[in-house]
């Protein structure tokens, strides 16, 4: 089933996709002429597949549950923000705060992601095939951020229990973020993440970063980091 | 020693509490963290009085002539605005800062009076959803517990930009309150000192906020009223920007507003009093021709029906209470003196919400302390308190000849101090003088 956003309103399309008649067999949808609309495919709830043919604005697939959304273009700020489950695949580049606060599901970005990718993430898996901007994984709580390119400065600042794997160069790490051992268990874990998305990369070549856990409780000795 | 003290002159620059704080800082090397709101005295609603009726105005008969208190909230854009029976709501307070029993009791009390309660920086608990007739779901920078299912279960959504106790600061919840359930809801390890972000992770200014609000409306089918909450700082501009961003409701929280835990220096030294902020916000709404179209809810130091009436007379559509609602639950009640003593404080002085050792079972996650707050009884106290505020509000409205509390107006007020006259822009009592205002 096709939607043309030059002929239908954003709310009409979103409302239709959010309230799928589960008695019908229609599960695949294509959206043409997205025209940079914001909040396209926000709040989807069901196991459907949506392909967006073109570039979109802010918060595409925001708070997604269960749905598989593919964007054949670039995305604006906050793609898949607060995603709960499902899959969001960006074929182009992503603006800032991609996957922000995501609780679950997988976000794949074929290109680069701008600053604060995975900010405050809470369980989501984010795989960026290109590079990420500064302050990515800031205050990241849980989940996995996999970067096949490079990371700009202050990666993982004030990180909690999320894991960061980076294949390329890291310009600098943020407060309380340290490099951690890439042992067999971690290699196996990363392999599973990559294989699940058919991504061919050698997990042994990645470096892993996470929390030093020095800022978890207030200590005067850490005052320069607060 | 006491005889000697009688003849000694203290330092006005260094009173006892200042000396004690300097010496505490010297010992511990870290700022003081505490709960509740500003302790310093600032111009407030006590500095205003109602003129009442006279030869030029006639009053309504108390108990006989009706005085409407209901207010419709969120009818600018939302398909399903909410109608509150009274213009007094319960402010956002998190599960985590408060125990589940306290949240439950607030919901029961508010529901019994036909008004709303609000979630907080920890998500929505099933207990508060069940007990709350109208529940406002907060979207905070931390996004702890945020999910689309709860978003759709809410009756309204409040985008929290700031808080009166700490405009520009994020929340704190110290490790002793992060038990298993709180940690799970927030997706954090147990026992850590949790620092909430001070700004949202996916938008940074009013233009972005407009798009964020659009997203929230798209997810909820444009049904829910969207509130934007700001701490009292640059209230004129913040109100205008919230309106521009598409808010149905602006929530303005003055510096007397409370918090579960933050730095004392933030509470006492950042933000402006409710009185001045409210007048600025009303100016802004009037200039945009949005007064009474975008509802204004005011919080921060509301204690009595007189405070409610004065806020409404100055232009608010409703008020919100946090600290006072906690006090109705028994916060700072003269009970369990030995437990106050263990905290180094006493009833009436306690601001130890951050410790999790609340003697009366309100701001705690300790199961034994929580038992001291029985939700049904505590809910009845909240209901009684709200009922009292409402009766006081109606009494004052009738005395000023109003059949609807929202007909109260600045012309019904006079100020007792020059500062209050300037901030509230009402004449100093017995004069027509409003400092700094040239008609």
The overall pLDDT of chain A, averaged over residues, is 95
Low-confidence stretches of chain B: none
Order of helices and strands of chain A: EHEEEEEEEEEHE
Strand content of chain A: 15-25%
Q: How would you classify the quaternary structure?
A: heterodimer
Walkthrough of the structure:
The complex is a heterodimer of chains A (226) and B (439). Chain A has a single domain (2-22, 36-213), classed as 3 Solenoid (Pectate Lyase C-like), CATH 2.160.20. Chain A is mainly beta and 226 residues long. Chain A is elongated. Helices cover 10% and strands 23% of the residues of chain A. Chain A has an 11-stranded mixed β-sheet, covered by helices on one side. In chain A, α1 (10-18) links the parallel β1 and β2 (28-32). Chain B has 439 residues and is α/β, with parallel strands linked by helices. Chain B has one domain: Aldolase class I (TIM Barrel). Chain B has helices at 2-6, 16-28, 100-112, 126-131, 148-153, 180-186, 206-219, 235-244, 264-269, 274-287, 305-313, 323-329, 337-342, 367-370, 375-399, 418-424, and strands at 33-34, 48-50, 71-73, 82-84, 88-90, 116-118, 134-139, 156-160, 172-173, 194-195, 226-231, 249-253, 262-263, 295-299, 318-321, 413-415. Chain B has an 8-stranded parallel β-sheet with strand order 5-15-14-12-11-8-7-6. In chain B, strands 1-13 form a two-stranded antiparallel sheet. A two-stranded antiparallel sheet of chain B has the order 2-16. The longest helix of chain B is centred in the last third of the chain and has 25 residues, at 375-399. The model of chain B has no long low-confidence stretch (mean pLDDT 93). Chain A binds chain B through residues 10-11, 14-15, 18, 38-39, 42-43, 45, 57-59, 62-63, 65, 77-78, 81-82, 84, 96-97, 100-101, 103, 116, 119-120, 122-123, 138-139, 141-142, 158, 160-161, 216-218, 220, 223, and chain B through 28-30, 142-143, 146-148, 151, 174-175, 187-189, 191-193, 195, 197, 201-203, 208, 211-212, 214-215, 218-222.
């Amino acid at each position: 089933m096709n939607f043309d956003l030059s002929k239908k309103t954003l709310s009409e399309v979103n409302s239709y996709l959010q309230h799928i008649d589960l008695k019908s067999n229609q599960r695949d949808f294509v959206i043409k002429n997205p025209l940079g609309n914001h909040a396209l495919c926000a709040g989807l709830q069901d196991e459907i597949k949506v392909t967006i043919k073109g570039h979109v604005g802010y918060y595409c697939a925001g708070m997604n549950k269960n749905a598989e959304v593919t964007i054949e273009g670039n995305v604006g700020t906050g793609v898949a923000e607060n995603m709960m489950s499902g899959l969001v695949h960006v074929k182009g580049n992503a603006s800032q705060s991609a996957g922000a606060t995501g609780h679950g599901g997988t976000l794949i970005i074929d290109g680069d992601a701008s600053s604060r990718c995975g900010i405050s993430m809470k369980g989501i898996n984010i795989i960026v095939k290109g590079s990420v901007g500064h302050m990515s994984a800031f205050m990241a709580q849980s989940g996995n951020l996999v970067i096949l390119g490079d990371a700009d400065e202050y990666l993982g600042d004030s990180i909690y229990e999320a894991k960061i794997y980076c294949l390329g160069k890291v310009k600098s790490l943020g407060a309380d973020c340290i490099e951690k051992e890439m042992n067999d268990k971690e290699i196996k874990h990363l392999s599973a993440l990559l294989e699940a998305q058919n991504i061919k990369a050698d997990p042994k070549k990645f470096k892993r970063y996470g929390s030093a856990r020095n800022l978890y409780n207030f200590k005067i000795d850490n005052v320069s980091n607060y | 020693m006491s005889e000697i003290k009688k003849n000694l002159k203290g330092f006005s620059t260094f009173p006892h509490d200042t000396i004690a704080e300097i010496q505490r800082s010297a010992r511990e090397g870290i700022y003081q963290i505490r709960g509740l709101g500003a302790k310093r005295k600032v111009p407030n609603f006590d500095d205003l009085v109602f003129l009442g009726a006279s030869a030029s105005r006639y009053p309504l008969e108390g108990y006989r002539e009706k005085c409407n208190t209901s207010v419709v909230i969120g009818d600018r854009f939302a398909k399903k605005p909410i109608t509150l029976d009274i213009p007094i709501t319960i402010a956002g307070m998190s599960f985590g800062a408060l125990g589940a029993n306290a949240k439950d009791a607030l919901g029961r009390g508010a529901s019994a009076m036909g008004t709303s309660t609000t979630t907080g920086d920890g998500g929505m608990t099933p207990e508060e959803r069940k007990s709350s007739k109208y529940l406002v779901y907060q979207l905070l920078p931390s996004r702890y517990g945020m999910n689309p299912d709860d978003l759709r279960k809410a009756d309204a959504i409040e985008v929290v930009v700031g808080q009166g106790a700490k405009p520009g600061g994020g929340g704190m919840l110290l490790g002793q309150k992060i038990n298993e359930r709180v940690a799970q809801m927030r997706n954090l390890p147990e026992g850590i000192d949790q620092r909430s972000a001070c700004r949202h992770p996916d938008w940074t200014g009013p233009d972005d906020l407009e798009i964020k609000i659009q997203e929230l409306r798209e997810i909820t089918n444009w049904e829910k009223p969207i509130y934007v909450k700001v701490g009292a700082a640059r209230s004129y501009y913040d109100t205008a920007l919230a309106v521009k961003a598409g808010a149905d409701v602006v929530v303005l929280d003055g510096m007397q507003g409370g918090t579960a835990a933050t730095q004392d220096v933030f509470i006492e030294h950042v933000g402006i009093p409710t009185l001045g902020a409210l007048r600025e916000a009303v100016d802004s709404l009037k200039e945009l021709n949005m007064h009474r179209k975008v509802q204004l809810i005011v919080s921060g130091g509301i204690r009595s029906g007189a405070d409610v009436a004065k806020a409404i007379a100055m232009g608010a559509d409703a008020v919100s209470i946090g600290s006072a609602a906690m006090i109705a639950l028994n916060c700072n009640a003269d009970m369990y003196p030995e437990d106050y003593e263990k905290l180094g404080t006493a009833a009436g002085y306690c601001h130890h919400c951050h410790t999790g050792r609340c003697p009366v079972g309100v701001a705690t996650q300790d199961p034994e302390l929580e038992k001291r707050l029985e939700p049904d009884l505590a809910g009845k106290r909240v209901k009684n308190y709200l009922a009292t505020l409402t009766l006081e509000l109606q009494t004052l409205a009738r005395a000023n000849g109003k059949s609807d509390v929202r007909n109260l107006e600045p012309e019904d007020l006079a100020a007792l101090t020059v500062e209050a006259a300037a901030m509230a822009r009402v004449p100093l009592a017995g004069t027509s003088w409003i400092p700094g205002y040239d008609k």
